[in-house]
């Protein structure tokens, strides 16, 4: 296949990475995208890191053989934390873009009390979080909400239902923070609820714009602009449709900052 016709492969455990795909096709419509939602191995956040790495490598190998993408995007903080380094070693001829919690933009804007909301695996294995926990100029806090990505999948048509449980977890932090970093692409869907819970002087950050900019810089466009959405579990296709409709309704922003 000619290099210019090669698609970009985007991977997440489910609907999280659609928040990146939506922004990406708006910014760079003239490119082909293959989105793979690995529901079979979801959630990524609470399984063993070695099993997750193995599953990712196997799935990416198969998808790579079949579609020869020009680049691979881990539209998932957890997959990035456990597998981005090994993928960069294996797929040297293709670009690999990962997703990381947007702690640095918060630090650059002078935020001092930063809470990162992420999965257990991201908090455990993300290098940026580990490094910033040592930064004496900021007070970095982390919080893993058990099963939150699964709850978001299950309640994508009625996310307000999750507000009481999220509020309960956030209460101990609410008066202490000036920034909340969403370190999981699934959590982007919670922005409206988080805005209702948090006071207006707490800024909410996510890494999606940075990811989209990096992909656009590294990729080659073509004329066709096709999007293929694949799922390793057919019954979960409905979640992808609901999430896409929600993104369309909100112009991909979910809620204005
Ligand atoms: N969306 C993923 C992330 O950004 C993972 C959610 C999960 O499967 O636990 O971390």
Your description of this structure?
The chain is of the alpha/beta class and 257 residues long. The chain has two domains: 3-99 and 208-255, Rossmann fold (3-Layer(aba) Sandwich); 103-206, Rossmann fold. Helix content is 43%, strand content 16%. It is built from eleven helices and nine strands. It has helices at residues 18-27, 49-67, 77-90, 103-108, 120-125, 127-132, 148-154, 163-174, 191-197, 208-218, 237-249, and strands spanning 8-12, 33-37, 71-74, 95-97, 113-118, 139-143, 179-183, 203-205, 227-231. It is globular. The termini are far apart. Bound molecules: D-glutamic acid. The site of D-glutamic acid has 16 residues, from helix 3.
Note the main attributes of this structure.
four-stranded parallel beta sheet, single chain, five-stranded parallel beta sheet, 2 domains, 11 helices, 257 residues, alpha/beta, binds D-glutamic acid, Rossmann fold
Secondary-structure element pattern, one letter each = EHEHEHEHEHHEHHEHEHEH
Look at the structure and give the CATH class of the largest domain.
Alpha Beta
> What general form does the structure show?
globular
Strand order of the largest sheet: 4-3-1-2-9
Number of domains: 2
> Rg from C-alpha positions?
18 Å
Mean pLDDT: 95
Percent in strands: 15-25%
């Amino acid at each position: 296949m000619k290099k210019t016709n090669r698609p970009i492969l985007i991977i997440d455990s489910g609907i999280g990475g659609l928040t990146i795909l939506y922004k990406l096709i708006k910014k760079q419509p003239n490119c082909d995208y293959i989105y793979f939602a690995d529901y079979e191995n979801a959630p990524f956040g609470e399984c063993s890191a070695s099993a997750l790495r193995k599953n990712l490598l196997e799935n990416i190998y198969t998808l790579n053989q079949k579609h020869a993408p020009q680049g691979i995007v881990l539209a998932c903080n957890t997959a990035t934390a456990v597998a981005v380094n090994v993928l960069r070693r294996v797929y040297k001829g293709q670009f690999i873009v990962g997703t990381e919690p947007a702690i640095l933009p918060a630090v650059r804007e002078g935020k001092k009390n930063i809470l990162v909301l992420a999965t257990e695996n991201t908090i455990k294995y993300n290098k940026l979080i580990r490094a910033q926990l040592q930064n004496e100029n900021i007070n970095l806090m982390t919080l893993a909400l058990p099963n939150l990505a699964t709850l978001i999948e299950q309640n994508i048509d009625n996310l307000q239902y999750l507000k009481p449980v999220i509020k309960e977890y956030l209460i101990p932090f609410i008066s202490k923070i000036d920034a909340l970093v969403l370190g999981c692409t699934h959590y982007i869907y919670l922005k409206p609820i988080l805005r209702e819970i948090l006071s207006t002087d707490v800024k909410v950050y996510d890494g999606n714009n940075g990811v989209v900019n990096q992909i656009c810089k590294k990729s080659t466009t073509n004329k066709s602009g096709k999007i293929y959405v694949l799922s390793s579990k057919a019954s979960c296709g409905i979640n992808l449709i609901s999430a896409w409709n929600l993104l369309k309704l909100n112009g991909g922003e979910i809620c204005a900052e």
